[in-house]
Amino acid sequence: MSIYITGHKNPDTDSICSAIGYAALKGEGYAAGRLGELNPETQFVLNHFGVDAPTLLGNMAGQEIILVDHNEAAQSADGIEEAKILEIVDHHKIGGIKTSEPIMFCNMPLGCTATIVTMLYKHEHKMPEAKIAGVLCSAILSDTLAFRSPTCTETDKIIALQLAEIAGIADVEAYAKEMFVAGSELGSKTEKEILYLDFKKFESGNTTFGVGQVTSMSGEELQELKPRMQQYMEQSFAEHGADMLFLMLTDIMDESTDLIYCGEGAKEAVDKAFTSDAADRTYLKGCMSRKKQVVPQLTDALK
Ligand SMILES: [Mn+2]
User: Fold this and answer.
1) In terms of CB atoms within 10 Å, which of 78, 180, 223, 295 comes out highest?
2) Ligand 1 center from residue 15 Cα (angstroms)
3) Structure pTM?
4) Ligand 1 mean position, distance from CA 260 (Å)
């Protein structure tokens, strides 16, 4: 019987891929486990590299277990309090798990657990085989938003690029984009669901305005969405309870936002708020933050 290595419940790509990568390093007697269904992004990664999904684990009471990408009982397997934790490899805050004996506990403030797993390979003067390198690299790209997240360190980037080379990922940027597109489920959502994915209302003077934000790695996906959302916002305008509606279509790869809007006075507000040189005044290069780069400007313009 194998000792299972598992990430957290509601697993993300790092939780699944770090378990797979660490089980491959540990070798015979160890297997990767998971505590929930694979999300579409992770499914894409495993298909891409031809790697099997880890075993779905039940109650782990009385069993030996290794935790990756988490160290809190609330996020872990049912029965974890009665399980024997052998090791923990993680990059989160220390969350209160106690053990009765000393264990290998490797926690580092890096962007991804898969980075630490790769460091453990290096510690044994090894590197993962191609398909394992591929899933570990994918986890780093996922957790760091392809090196764009403020949590990403130089170490994450260096290791991801080393793994990419082993895995034969020629263009890391292009691969990350493909992975994020596969993982975003915008295609299956209604216009209303998309508008309310991340939507907040604000007030300035006597004007109530709503600003939604959709973030995507795919400029094409956003351009397809643009006319659909414009039409939906105009048709359903009355039901949103705002004088103006704005929707940020934020392209992570291009580091820009395309702003669509409707409501009386919205165009004037946009013209006043943003001094974009682009022919289309709603293309905002460098704009990715609603909180810092859109709401204060609109608030001022509407005063
Ligand atoms: Mn992680």
Assistant:
1) 180
2) 6
3) 0.73
4) 34
